[in-house]
């Protein structure tokens, strides 16, 4: 199989794979935005380049999370429990954001690419809930 690229990924996600439900796709530069309508319009950003595909969900502005260093320590301690996904910090419009991302081979089958995005979306929902519980003081530092 040839490596995935922006055009082939767009076609894959525009077909509304059953594992993702109804989705919208749009291209922003070299990035594919896959909006999962059935997951509250969750945006997953997908990039294909070289030998890998990277899928990412922006979770929350970092400055919106109290006790950031303690939260980041918690994220580092628990990230092994989050299958196929990793926590990170990215800069969006000059502001730090927590993100959850996963990567896979650009030669992966369509089923594996869709599964990665589906698992990432589920993990992002869990991570967003974790952040909200942290903000509300339901999880101790």
Automatic annotation (TrEMBL):
InterPro entries with a match to the protein in the record: DUF2170
Pfam families assigned to the protein according to its UniProt record, in alphabetical order: DUF2170 (PF09938)
Name by which UniProt lists this protein: Sensory transduction regulator
High-level lineage: Bacteria, Pseudomonadati, Pseudomonadota, Alphaproteobacteria, Hyphomicrobiales
């Amino acid at each position: 199989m040839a490596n995935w690229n922006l055009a082939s990924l767009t076609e894959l996600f525009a077909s509304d794979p059953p594992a993702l439900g109804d989705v919208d796709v749009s291209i922003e530069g070299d990035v594919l935005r896959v909006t999962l309508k059935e997951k509250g319009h969750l945006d997953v950003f997908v990039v294909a380049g070289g030998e890998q595909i990277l899928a990412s969900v922006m979770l929350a502005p970092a400055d919106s999370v109290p006790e950031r260093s303690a939260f980041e320590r918690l994220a580092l301690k628990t990230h092994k429990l989050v299958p196929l996904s990793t926590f990170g910090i990215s800069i969006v419009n000059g502001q730090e954001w927590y993100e959850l991302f996963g990567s896979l081979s650009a030669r992966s089958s369509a089923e594996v690419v869709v599964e990665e995005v589906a698992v990432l979306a589920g993990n992002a929902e869990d991570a967003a809930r974790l952040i909200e519980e942290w903000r509300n003081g339901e999880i101790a530092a």
